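User: Assemble these into one structure.

Assistant: Restating your components, then the assembled model:
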Amino acid sequence: MSTAAERADQLDLVARLKSAYPELPDAPPPDLLDHDRFTAYMKPVHDVGGEPDAPIKYEDKDYEYWEHMTYVMCEVLAWRGIWLSEERRRMGNVDVGRAVYLGFPYYGRWLLSVARVLVEKHHIGLTELAERMAEVQQRYAGGLAEKALTAEPRFAGDGSQVKRNSHIVHAVGKGDPQVYAGKAAEPKFGVGDAVTVRERPMLFYTRTPEYVRGATGEIAVVAYESPAPEDETWDRPDAKPEWFYVVSFAMADLWHGYTGAATDTLRTEIPERWLQPAR
Amino acid sequence: MTHDHDHDHDRTVKPMVDEITDFEVLEIALRELCIEKGIFTAEEHRRFTEFAEQIGPTPAARLVARAWLDPDFKALAIAEPLAASKEVGVDWLEPTGFGTPSDFTAFQILADTPTVHHVIVCALCSCYPRPILGNSPEWYRTPNYRRRLVRHPRQVLSEFGLYLPESIEVRVQDSNQKNRFMVMPMRPEGADDWTEDQLTEIITRDCLIGVALPRVGVTTNIVVDTRLAMHPSGE
């Protein structure tokens, strides 16, 4: 049991965790929040390309056992039709919010996304998850002391009534995105076409990076058909596939003050709905 | 600040007893509930674990070595990368019948030329050709690498010891949707009579990401300092 002083200390610790503009009060009145700051708050937090940062020492890292097990659990959940990869990418990389996104270890976010999908899709209740966590904690009370980390399910459940997606049926033997081949309209653009990335209102999720929006480039590859990630991430079976393109940009056009060679380029994949013919 | 000591000294969490961490508790609780509810079976979990433990960068290195020796195979690698992967033992549809879900099954090989150097990044997460290259290194997943490579590629490459002249176009591939990319570097000088096995040795993971070039005599990655795990996986 914690003491009142310990609870106060933890509240102090939480109060120092900031992920808001320091010049504004918490929960500001609407007149203080301008469009640029609104856009910044709404920017999906995984979209870090081009944000200012300084060199650090790059290191490798050995896997914690739970990290390896978390990766496996995520993939098995997709294999068994509980979620699409696109749902996992949103839940773990964006829905967690800026503070957790930047504050947690990489696989910590993957693990949170497992809890999130299972609770949101009614596979497990948050109450039973909390109780099971308390039980696991109790099992290891007093420390690991040479005990191995092991899952000890009480029984193996009957999965025949578990709700699963149809992707795992359709994609077998084909793969993804091949499962969507032939389902989009004719591609609007061809290799060499000049295209501008659209700028439009944005909420919750996209995989079109902010740093290319408004920029003009050239179609390098007409790549594959797939639903747009903004729809696929909520597993909408009616989302119509569209063409995706690898678009090439001159670095000097993308970045103000680019100091590399004039011929340097960047390529990234963009779905058709984000592109318009360059004027 | 120097880091002469072991890695433990700067950890926030340094328990007196070896306590189970919050992440470990959550992972075990979720796995138990999934098995009890039949969401997946222990056997399916074990099968994927075994699959994940045998992937690594060797097939990708062999693919490039073979392409250096055989122009027909190089043409296949560029035109039909999934078919070329099979030739070095990697079936992208394994182990589920539709691939490793997070990696999708759209693979492209980017061949360097005397005037173009490729380097890959995923600015949104950590997209990486895991089935043929194994798990990505920790630094590849850092917000730091992702933020900077798309904007300051030459500076970041210089931090790996790679300095490219202005006559070479640096082509950054930001892999952010369903395509997965790997770089096919050019064959270095001084390896003219080498066998496929010898060439495979010098095609490191870093070369296949594009932060290094193959060199005769160099068989290790650039970054070698490794942070130890508290409770390592059995790999």
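The mean pLDDT of chain A is 95.
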